[in-house]
């Protein structure tokens, strides 16, 4: 446990020194929120609904950091450590692959936490965002979305041949999910045919679940996203541990 | 004396290239074993196959009675390694790299002590990438000694060091050896090998062409200087002509 904490402390320091994740996982979600807030203010999401546009988008904004960490940061750091033979050095020490992956995973969990902690007060103060559903259900769906997305990243980092292929896979996952899953471009403004296509992204399922729980909408279709994300998590985690490569 | 490293008929090929060809060796506790040979003779590959970072095609390896592939986590509590090409996390500081490494072991050595012994005690707050080549080399010897190991593997331990620094490293290693440390090293400096090694193995194109003591190498080849003996035994002299 002690070595986990020391590794975590040092790796987190290195990660912050690098600044990429501070920008993409903490500052970017805030900027997107401010832009959406300035455009929409406190107006309702549609005619005749009780919640505002910002409340409807809040769940999606919380996934910007999840996308950045899980689909950019995590796969790149793991594959970079492999390519630069840092993992090889770890291989001739007693550390287990599970511990190393857990340390890197925890770093991105921390970024996601910082992001949601900064987004909540800003949304509440400036755009009077209030939760209509339950915090517990919302945070559980946030957690599930985060863990499933991070597990995808861990798998990509774990099995990609080198940094270049990891970065290509990461970009293929990151940009479409960031733009089309409803993270930045609201799901509601997309044409119906497009909504059907983008529903295959696990993160789209996560965002829909977070929206439902945040707005307190009738949860008639909660099973599908939960099962989908749970399966992704278990599958990707198992693959990333089983097929972990030091070199 | 107890044999702490046993290698039996190890072979490894890369495609068509036979990098390690049927090598056997054994190292006794508290001795220094030198693996010699020209660039590309298979020294690093041999070390990596012994450590299990590369999978050998054939052969048996036992270190302290452990199988390096299967008992990795137990074995590397007691074994320190310095690779020829080592990289480190971007932007990491000397103190952070030391602390991170020390945290992985049950009974780590004091990193500050080790760093000052190796003459980099005043660099502890610097970033690793700001160190000179020689300082970085010494840092990676420090990293290999942090586990307070029973055996240490040093691949080209003094490459990039100046004369004084090389002598300092020899002195420290001699003291550690007197305290019972077993060392397996590779080197291109024959003066160093003569001072440190109890036994040597010379590799040529993956094959062991000589196995024995430095004195024996000199008498077999009929040379007074070990460097000459090495050149004859490794066949580099003949190849050059």
Biggest interface, CB < 8 A? A-B, 24 and 27 residues
Q: Given the structure, what is the number of helices of chain A?
A: 10
Helical amount of chain A = over 70%
Number of helices of chain B: 10
Q: Radius of gyration of chain B, rounded? A: 18 Å
Q: What is the SS-derived class of chain B?
A: alpha/beta
Main beta sheet strand tally, sense and closure of chain A: none
Distance between the termini of chain B: 42 Å
Instruction: Tell the overall outline of chain A.
Output: globular
Q: Runs of chain A with pLDDT <50, length 5+?
A: none
> Strand order within the widest sheet of chain B?
5-6-7-3-8-9
Short description:
With 247 residues, chain A is an all-alpha fold.
Describe, in plain words, how this protein is organized in 3D.
The complex is a heterodimer of chains A (247) and B (241). With 247 residues, chain A is mainly alpha-helical. Chain A has one domain (2-242). Chain A has helices at 2-18, 20-40, 53-83, 86-91, 97-127, 135-159, 163-180, 192-198, 202-215, 223-242. In chain A, helix 6 packs antiparallel against helix 9. Chain A starts with a helix and ends in a 5-residue tail after the last helix. The mean pLDDT of chain A is 91. With 241 residues, chain B is an alpha/beta fold. Chain B has a domain at 81-149. Chain B is built from 10 helices and 9 strands. In chain B, a hairpin with a 2-residue loop joins strand 1 and strand 2 (17-28). Chain B is globular. Classes of the chains: A mainly alpha (247), B alpha/beta (241). The A-B interface holds A 2-3, 6-7, 10-11, 13-14, 17-18, 81, 84-86, 88-89, 91-96, 246-247 and B 51-53, 72-74, 76-77, 79, 81, 83, 85-92, 96, 99-101, 103-105, 147.
